[in-house]
Amino acid sequence: MKKTLAALTVALALGCATAESAVPPAQPEKPSAPATPPPPAPAPAPTPGSPPTPDAAFRAQKPAPLPGMPTFDAPVPVVKKLKNGTEVWVIENPAIPVVAVEVVLKSGVNAEPIAKAGLADLVVSLLDEGTKTRSAAKLAEEIEDLAMELGANAGREDMRVHVNSLTETLPQALDLMADVLLNPAFKPEDVDRVKALKITALEQKKGTPGALAADEAGRLLFGAKHPWGQPDGGTPQTLRAITVGDLQKFHDTWFRPNNALIAVSGDVKADQVVKLLDERLSAWKAKPLPKLQLPAPPEMKARTVTFVDKPNTTQSQI
Predict the structure, then answer these.
(1) DSSP of 256-280, one letter per residue?
(2) Which of 60, 211, 226, 233 has the fewest CB atoms found within 10 Å of its own CB?
(3) Does 249 fall in a domain?
(4) 218 falls in which pLDDT band (50, 70, 90)?
(5) Is residue 105 part of a domain?
(6) How far apart are CA 211 and CA 217, in angstroms?
(7) Are strands 98-105 and 87-92 parallel, antiparallel or unpaired?
(8) Adjacent-strand bridge partners of 6
(9) Contacts of 285 (CB under 8 A, 6+ apart)
């Protein structure tokens, strides 16, 4: 019995070994071949019957390199003088029938009294609000009829009156420019209206972080006693303090030919435009100019960071 069990055990063991040897060993998996990218989509066929665009041949070729570096030759103005002594710089440019005229007064915000901050800006804003011979409506109508531009602005060191017109209407455009430059009306009703608009703009400025930061930078750099250290455009209080007499005095003091330069560019000859200006500005006379006494900016002894707190704003600016 024991021999029989031993024989069966040996036979089972041999059978298991034989069965295991009959199973082939597992082969390592072969790496899968990379997926072939799909072919590019064919370009859309042109619509049947549609002709090629005129520049198709040009766009099909690479542009040739430039033969050399482009050069720029700055135009050199012709410098003339009016009979009243004002310098006129003329750049003759007949490319298009347009002429631009810029009258530059060499005083601006720097000529304002501290208590009247915003005076220069108010003066130039009222120049095209009517003259002694033309109402604001009449002036606007003539500007529109001539298809011209007329404007004025004030900077820290200058004030400008700008005209842009067609060559054929330049004489009439210069008529309006001379009237605005020499004869602003400063009517009380116009002054009150423009002041109200500017005060409203100043109130709106309180919600503009960039404008508040710029005003604070001016105060820090130039000091509270310097015109440039005042808020841009003044304050509601200083604007309300400006009278019609202040406007007339500021204009009479600084709007003088010996404080001006006229630049002209466009389709016009230098002698021609000087003749036109002489005819229209003959009543513009020179006058001694006050000497500005501006305080020195404060000395910066250390690097500082200043914060202007504006609660409930949606953004900050540096």
Answers:
(1) -GGGEEEEEEESS-HHHHHHHHHHH
(2) 60
(3) yes
(4) very high
(5) yes
(6) 10
(7) unpaired
(8) none
(9) 84, 256, 257
pLDDT (tens digit per residue) in 34-44: 555 555 555 45
Task: Give the three-class secondary structure for 188.
Answer: helix
> Binning pLDDT at 50, 70 and 90, where does residue 207 land?
confident
Q: What are phi and psi of 158, to 5 degrees?
A: -155, 165
State how far the Cα of 16 lies from the Cα of 33, in Å rounded to an integer. Answer: 39
CATH number for the domain including 90? Answer: 3.30.830.10
Contact assessment for residue 195 and residue 187, using Cβ atoms and an 8 Å cutoff: no
Q: How far is CA 191 from CA 115, 143, 244, 248, in A?
A: 18, 21, 7, 11
Amino acid found at 86? T
CA nearest neighbour of 186 among 140, 251, 234: 251
- Reading the block at residue 9, the tokens are 């055990």
φ, ψ for residue 147 (rounded to 5)? 50, 45
- Structural domains in the chain (count): 1
Determine the Cα–Cα distance for residues 66 and 153; give it in Å rounded to an integer: 42
Residue 229: inside a domain, yes or no? yes
**260-266 and 98-105 strand pairing:** antiparallel
Domain interval for residue 152: 83-280
Average pLDDT of the segment spanning 157-169: 97
- Tell me, yes or no, whether 193 lies in a domain: yes
